[in-house]
């Protein structure tokens, strides 16, 4: 009986340690947008890089939640996505399009969403 209890304590300790270190890393990893960066870069780094990564390949943070965000560097995949499709996914979220991990950014202006579409296209060029 004590072996089972010891195993439970070990598992709980490891989970707590993982949550603590993951949360700490999340808090310490600040936005690295250089001063004077264009608006679309600031928008991407502030809203998208958490899951899609600064380089557009995906972030370890998304993997913590078992989410696999789109890889914007994949030329074949990105060439199949129209600008309107990317716009709609950003504006309405991914759930209506079979991408349930993608949140909606409908609070952004259409101009900002179009700027984000142009920005993410750069990763696959």
Polypeptide structure, described:
The chain has helices spanning 2-28, 39-52, 60-64, 75-80, 83-92, 110-122. It has 125 residues and is mainly alpha-helical. The chain folds into 2 domains: 1-30; 33-122, Orthogonal Bundle (Cytochrome Bc1 Complex, Chain D, domain 2). The N and C termini lie far apart (60 Å).
Task: Give a brief description.
The chain is mostly helical and 125 residues long. The protein is 60% helix and 0% strand. The chain is elongated and about 60 Å long.
User: What coarse outline follows from CA principal-axis ratios?
Assistant: elongated
Structural class: mainly alpha
Question: How many individual helices?
Answer: 6
- Considering DSSP H and I runs of 4 or more, what fraction of the residues is helical? 55-70%
CATH topology of the largest domain: Cytochrome Bc1 Complex, Chain D, domain 2
Order of H and E elements: HHHHHH
Compute the CA-based radius of gyration. Answer: 18 Å
What low-confidence regions span 5 or more consecutive residues with pLDDT below 50? none
CATH superfamily of the largest domain: Cytochrome c-like domain
Mean pLDDT: 85
| Distance between the ends | 60 Å
